């Protein structure tokens, strides 16, 4: 998970400009695995209609005069006492668009995750570290109780996914059946909590977004497999259903969800989209 010093939080949109010049894939989704035919057929049509330009992002980000307008399009509502920040909105842009009513059914609010860490990462001068997070209250495992769901860490887009530097992961944490009001938790505090009180783990991934379909919650997860940098072997989009079976992630020492594949789609490049601002 990437963390930044508040005092040094300078943001550049140069990367957006370079992304705009690079061809981004145009996708066709082909259903490979289906355990719920009606749901999977629905998402087969939906993904091909609205998510073929998955990595496009509005080219107005590169225009300083248009950024306030595009920020309003991409911004999430904020938790009480917070104001939307342009750099945070940009960082979370792929969690907003592309979209559909299934993804918009998640009542996300923008929050902050803060902790104390060292400036050099080796126990030096302590500084306050802050990251944007998304927070929602929903029954993500469909067990009849409302959970607090937090997403932290956000994809930087396709060029970074295929680069030699690699990509960061998106994390989804779930406080099952609880309303967690204090979201400025120091990760060190999590280690002191009883295991049952810690947020449950969902497997980190390059890109993942909860959704609701016909009153049930699911998780859409994108995966990319590389032979080597800039050489993509395969890409997949999976719809998962989460189940709480009382398991513990022994490595992380926190509750662990079972993740059941409901639908899996192979993603094929059928063209290139040079960032046409579709999203």
List descriptors.
five-stranded antiparallel sheet, alpha+beta, six-stranded antiparallel sheet, globular, 18% helix, 279 residues, 7 helices
Fold blueprint:
Elements: E1 4-5, H1 14-21, E2 24-34, H2 37-50, H3 67-74, H4 86-91, H5 101-104, E3 109-118, E4 126-138, E5 147-152, H6 158-161, E6 171-175, H7 187-192, E7 200-201, E8 207-213, E9 216-228, E10 231-249, E11 254-273
Antiparallel strand pairs: 1-4, 2-11, 3-4, 4-5, 5-6, 6-7, 8-9, 9-10, 10-11
Largest sheet: 6 strands, antiparallel
Number of strand segments: 11
Measured distance between first and last alpha carbons: 26 Å
Quaternary class:
single chain
Give the SSE string.
EHEHHHHEEEHEHEEEEE
Number of helices: 7
Average of per-residue pLDDT values: 82
State the secondary-structure class.
alpha+beta
Written description of the protein model:
The protein is of the alpha+beta class and 279 residues long. The chain is 18% helix and 39% strand. The chain is built from 7 helices and 11 strands. Strands 1, 3, 4, 5, 6 and 7 form a 6-stranded antiparallel beta sheet that branches. The chain has a 5-stranded antiparallel beta sheet with strand order 2-11-10-9-8. The two termini are 26 Å apart. The N terminus is likely disordered.
């Amino acid at each position: 998970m990437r963390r930044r010093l508040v005092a040094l939080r300078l943001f550049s949109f140069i990367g957006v400009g370079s992304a705009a010049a690079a061809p981004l894939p145009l996708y066709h989704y082909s259903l490979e695995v289906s355990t719920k035919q009606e749901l999977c057929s629905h998402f087969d049509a939906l993904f091909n209609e609205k998510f073929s330009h998955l990595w496009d992002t509005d080219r107005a980000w590169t225009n300083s005069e248009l950024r306030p307008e595009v920020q309003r399009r991409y911004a999430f509502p904020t938790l009480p006492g917070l104001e939307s920040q342009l750099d945070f909105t940009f960082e979370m842009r792929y969690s907003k668009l592309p979209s559909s009513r299934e993804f918009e059914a998640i009542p996300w609010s923008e929050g902050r995750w803060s902790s104390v860490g060292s400036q050099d990462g080796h126990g030096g001068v302590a500084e306050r570290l802050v990251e944007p997070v998304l927070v929602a209250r929903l029954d993500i495992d469909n067990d009849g109780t409302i959970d607090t769901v937090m997403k932290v860490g956000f994809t930087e887009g396709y060029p970074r996914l295929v680069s030699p530097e690699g990509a960061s992961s998106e994390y989804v944490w779930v406080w099952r059946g609880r309303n967690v009001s204090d979201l400025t938790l120091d990760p060190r505090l999590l280690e002191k909590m009883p295991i049952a009180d810690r947020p449950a783990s969902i497997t980190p991934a390059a890109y993942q977004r909860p959704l609701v379909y016909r009153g049930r919650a699911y998780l859409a997860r994108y995966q990319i497999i590389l032979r080597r940098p800039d050489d993509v072997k395969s890409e997949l989009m999976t719809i998962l259903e989460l189940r709480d079976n009382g398991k513990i992630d022994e490595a992380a020492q926190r509750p662990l969800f079972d993740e059941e594949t409901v639908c899996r789609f192979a993603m094929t490049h059928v063209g290139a989209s040079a960032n046409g601002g579709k999203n």
